[in-house]
Every structure is written in structure tokens, then in C-alpha cells.
Amino acid sequence: MKTLIAVLPYLLSAMSLLNIATIWRARSTILQRDVRGHRKFMFLSLGLWVSTLFLFALYLWLRGLIVLIAVPEAVFGLYTALVVLTLGMLFVSLFHNIKNCHAPYNSFTPKALLVWLVCCLLGVLFFPLIDAHILPL
After folding, report:
1. How do residues 48-66 score in pLDDT, each as one tens digit?
2. 136 occurs within a structural domain
3. Contact at 8 Å (CB) between 1 and 112?
4. Taking a C-beta distance cutoff of 8 angstroms, is the pair 52, 15 a contact?
5. Within 32-108, where are the H helices?
6. What pLDDT shows up at residue 105?
7. Separation CA 62–CA 3 (nearest Å)
8. What is the rounded distance in angstroms from the CA atom of residue 67 to the CA atom of residue 54?
């Protein structure tokens, strides 16, 4: 159990890096107007991101919320705000794409992808920072 707790922040960081690659690929397919490829990469990215957030919640449950003391407030606040903004933008983007499924590239989906990309980039730094200055169990 201690090994899982020690490795989890770095696994979350690696998952964020992988998510960056899938988001970038989804963005390039949307710019090429490849709707089928875009959907494929979006579902992969969404699955990775939800898994990352779930594992982060599991880590906080196993370790306790006290671990967030190690993270500077500005970084934690920015990351939390980006997660909430990303969720909102993804829901609005999904609504636009369902409403007009033939042209997802005409909505603000590319902007939502860029915000999601920034959120994952910050996650690469945020997750290892959680475990940086914490006393061992």
C-alpha cells in the first residue's frame, strides 16, 4: 500500500502527459475536419482524464487532504479553477456537437481543447508537487 501511495502522483503525472498527446491529436483532427477521428481521440482523452481525476481522488482519500498543504495555494487554486472551467467547457462543447453533429469544428471546441491541454500541462507539474515535501507514512 505504501508503494502505491508513493508511486501514484508520478503515475498521475504520466497519465497527464499521455492525455496531452491525445488532446493534441484530437485538436489536429478537428482542424483537419476529421469528425470520426476527432471523436475517437476525444473519447480516449476523456477516459484518461476521468481516470486521472478518479485516481487523484483515491490518492487524496488514501493519504488524506493534509497532502494539499505541500502544494502552493496559487498552483492548487489555478489547477482547481482549470478543472472546473474545463468541465464546463466540455459540457457546452458536447451540447454544441450534439446539436450540430456535422460541424464540431465550427463551435468553440478547439478553445475547450486548448483549456483542457493547459489543465493537463499544469497537472504534470501539480501531481508530483503534492508528494514533494510530505513526511512518509
Report:
1. 988 998 998 888 888 877 7
2. no
3. no
4. yes
5. 35-63, 73-99
6. 54
7. 12
8. 16
Residue 41: inside a domain: yes
User: pLDDT digits over 81-123, tens only?
Assistant: 888 998 888 777 777 766 766 555 556 667 777 888 888 888 8
Task: Quote the CA–CA distance of 52 and 130 in Å, as a whole number.
Answer: 14
pTM: 0.79
| Boundaries of domain holding 57 | 2-130
Return phi, psi of residue 38, to 5°.
-65, -45
pLDDT tier for residue 134 given thresholds of 50, 70 and 90: low
Whether residue 30 has pLDDT greater than 90:
no
- If one counts the domains in the chain, the total is 1
Q: DSSP for 48-60?
A: HHHHHHHHHHHHH
Which residue from 137, 124, 135, 105 is spatially nearest to 15, judged by alpha carbons?
A: 124
pLDDT band at 135 (very low <50, low <70, confident <90, very high): very low
Is the residue at 33 inside a domain?
yes
- What is the spatial distance between Cα 136 and Cα 129, in angstroms, rounded to a whole number? 15
How many Å is the Cα radius of gyration of the chain?
A: 16
